[in-house]
Amino acid sequence: QYNIGVKVLILNNDFQGMVKQWQDLFYEERYSQTEMVNPDFVKLAESMGAKALRIRTEEELPNKIAEFLEYDGPIVCDAIIEKHEHVYPMVPAGKGLGDFIVHPDLRN
């Protein structure tokens, strides 16, 4: 409505990503209610008057991210990522920022 430059970046792995990540890391991969049938986020954003992009490959990443960042109005970027990709750093439940977990390749 107000055409403010809100930017939404969706890391789309067709799962409830953070819930699945917890199930991977803390619950021995016992999955429950995490695989999703997502809407078409590009069409959804466009239906509300926002510009939308989809990134499917690593090769598209530099140009599409530049377009995403340079756009002045509201924009949604649906970045398709690997189904089993995790997001780091993360803070486990009940822990403080000093206890955050980093990607396994970056540990020690």
Automatic annotation (TrEMBL):
Q: Which SUPFAM superfamilies does the entry link to?
A: Thiamin diphosphate-binding fold (THDP-binding)
User: Looking at the UniProt record for this protein, which Gene Ontology cellular component terms does it annotate, in alphabetical order?
Assistant: acetolactate synthase complex; mitochondrion
Annotated Pfam families: TPP_enzyme_C
Report domain Thiamine pyrophosphate enzyme TPP-binding positions: 1-78
Among the GO biological process terms of this entry, one is: L-valine biosynthetic process
Q: Name one GO molecular function term.
A: thiamine pyrophosphate binding
Gene3D superfamilies reported in the protein's UniProt record: 3.40.50.970
Write out the similarity annotation: Belongs to the TPP enzyme family.
> What name does UniProt use for this protein?
10734_t:CDS:1
